[in-house]
Write a structure and sequence with these properties.
Layout: E1 2-8, E2 10-11, E3 23-24, H1 29-46, E4 54-62, H2 70-83, E5 85-95, H3 103-112, E6 117-123, H4 127-133, H5 139-151, E7 157-163, H6 170-182, E8 187-192, H7 200-206, H8 215-231, E9 235-238, E10 241-243, H9 250-256, E11 261-264, E12 269-272, E13 275-278, H10 283-291, E14 298-301, H11 304-315, E15 322-323, E16 339-342, E17 345-348, H12 350-354, H13 356-363
Parallel strand pairs: 1-4, 1-11, 2-3, 4-5, 5-6, 6-7, 7-8
Antiparallel strand pairs: 8-10, 9-10, 12-13, 13-14, 15-17, 16-17
Helix pairs in contact: 1-2, 1-10, 6-8
């Protein structure tokens, strides 16, 4: 099995925390047409790499995929369907912004029929939080999105939520989580606010306009989210991801299980045959790359040590953990208080998950 990722790099504006590659689309229809042409060319160029693979998942991410007309997305998916062998039970996810959740858009999406899972960035359930994060929508848009999912029968969808910023109180976190649970949202991704280099938030931090919170603040909110969602029957199956039974993200789970995938679009990454490769990060350079018929901008062959370390990194992010019999030389004695062993699997506990980046890096070969 395998997966495909399509990066749609366009946004109306950049969110304060986002370090994914994106550009403003504006009203440039020529740019959109050129992008569609190039990404279809890339699909054709790479199709032979998976000629013996069955594609189980397709994910349209960004950027803001819902900024594109449904017909354009459908054209891209049709190129995928013609050039890859798709599973009958394929999961096809589309990221959609709450402000794009209109009756007309959902009606067209349902009629097109190729998307069966949605993912949206609520990020906050109060307008002050949305303003702080630099989002382009309101809580009213969040409510409308939920109504439209029910109206048009999208019963498999995910909501993103951000915690750990200075204006967010534990009371607001609790209120938001209880709302999500009462609404029986199938999948919830809860991310701690990270301030990455070259983002609007990094500049604000440098100027003292915002403040980064300490670890204890993050841990309290992380633990609160965990306790509420698990009490409602959600499975905390990966550090940042919770799902009701049968509603986990198959596409993201494939990443954590080393399933091969191909990425299309600027900055998109691919993994297959023990190698990682990626496209040019800039749109015009990506156009040039595809125009020359080059599959990737760069590619690296993973060594046995690289693969070993990545399996540790990805495995310990998940609730399942690492099968100890496959890592007989793994020494975790220094961090024993952060681990549990169950049925032959080594797993990080909640406090271990919170500092997982440090623990995992110390366990690399």
């Amino acid at each position: 099995m395998s997966g495909l990722y399509v990066h749609i790099p366009f946004c109306v504006r950049k969110c304060g925390y986002c370090d994914f590659y994106s550009v403003k689309l504006g009203k440039d229809t020529h740019l959109l047409s050129l992008f569609t042409e190039k990404i279809i060319n890339e699909i054709l160029l790479k199709s032979y790499l998976f000629d013996k693979e069955t594609v189980e998942t397709v994910y349209f991410g960004g950027g803001t995929p819902s900024i594109l007309p449904v017909k354009t997305l459908e054209t891209i998916f049709s190129a995928i369907a013609k050039n890859f062998s798709l599973a009958k039970t394929i999961e096809c996810t589309l990221e959609i912004n709450p402000e794009h959740a209109t009756n007309e858009y959902f009606k067209e999406l349902k009629a097109a029929g190729f998307v069966n899972r949605l993912s949206t960035g609520f990020q906050a359930m109060d307008d002050d939080g949305l303003k702080y994060l630099g989002r382009n929508h309101s809580v009213t848009d969040n409510y409308r999105y939920l109504d439209l999912c029910r109206k048009y029968g999208f019963d498999n969808f995910s909501v993103d939520y951000i915690f750990g910023y200075e204006t967010l109180t534990e009371k607001e976190v609790e209120k938001s989580m209880n709302f999500f649970c009462d609404e029986k949202i199938p999948h919830i991704s809860a991310y701690s606010l990270g301030i990455e280099d070259n983002t609007p938030f990094a500049l604000k931090l440098q100027k003292g306009l915002i403040h980064k919170m300490d670890d204890e603040f993050f841990l309290r909110q992380f633990s609160l989210i965990h306790s509420i969602l698990e009490s409602y029957g959600y499975n905390h199956y990966e550090i940042s991801n919770y799902s009701l039974p049968g509603k986990h993200s198959r596409h993201n789970s494939n990443y954590w299980n080393f399933v091969p995938y191909l990425g299309f679009g600027p900055s998109a990454h691919s993994y297959y045959d023990d190698s990682r490769s990626w496209n040019s990060r800039r749109l015009q350079e990506y156009f040039f790359q595809i125009g020359e018929g080059r599959l990737f901008e760069e590619r690296e062959i993973l060594t046995k040590t690289d693969i070993y370390n990545e399996k540790i990194m990805l495995g310990l992010r998940t609730k399942k953990g690492l099968k100890l019999s496959e890592f007989p030389k793994l020494d975790y004695s220094e961090f024993k208080e952060y681990f549990t062993v169950e049925d032959g699997y080594l797993k990080l506990n909640l406090k271990g998950w919170f500092i997982s980046d440090y623990i995992i890096s110390e366990m690399f070969e």
